[in-house]
Design brief:
This protein has 13 helices and eleven strands. The protein is α/β, with parallel strands linked by helices. α8 runs parallel beside α9. InterPro entries: Alpha/beta_knot_MTases (IPR029028), MRM3-like_sub_bind (IPR053888), Ribosomal_eL30-like_sf (IPR029064), rRNA_Methyltransferase (IPR051259), SpoU_MeTrfase (IPR001537), SpoU_subst-bd (IPR013123), tRNA_m1G_MTases_N (IPR029026).
Amino acid sequence: MPFTPRTPRVVAARRLQRRREREATGRFLAEGPQAVREALGRPRTVVELFGTPAALDRYADLAAAAAGADVPVSEVTDEAVEALTETVAPQGLVAVCQHLDVPLAAALARGPRLVAVLAGIRDPGNAGTVLRTADAAGAAMVVFAGEAVDPYNGKCVRASAGSLFHVDVVRERDPAAVLASARAAGLAVLAATGYGAEDLDDLADAGRLAAPTAWLFGSEAHGLPGELAEAADARVRVPLHGRAESLNLAAAAAVCLYASARAQR
């Protein structure tokens, strides 16, 4: 019989919706076929796959891939999937995954040319969207620094649209340590701020974006802390040619990351 919301393994998985439980177990939930597909593409990440009979039939390739990787595949009721997910219309698949954390030094040792640092970004939707954008622009590493949101928060995982499984995810409580380590690894450190002294287009025209770069992004509400922005090699603003007061975080991050990606190519 399919597992129900009261089945012990479903109950244990549902607890992963709480950060405390995620930290204690080193596990998190990824819901929907896109996230499950990308998670299965990263070896030794998925530890169990839950699916309704209809979803396991519809996404038989994912069920087969999980079984082929010795991942338990468990049938669950619609009610169990609703208990495990946080979306209005769940798609019937939920994977229990291992945390993906990579130590800061190990990630930098791989020689990334483009890095996004999320400094104190607390909104999970914004954080997941910036992570997805960084992946699309070719960044190999995303750092959640300071009091940033948990990257394994359900909304953050969903907003990343699978990109969480493509990049090195680093969590570092000390933003200053991130800057120092990035510089030691040969990266220029650029702070994105609406009040920056340097114009992004001017940096691009001068060829300064072609170097390996770590971009610092702050929260949409408060921006980067002043001391962190001052510690960067340059404080950079995205030029506004119209009458808009500002760009939101995701849009500004996309402009900055793609400017570097273009210059580096």
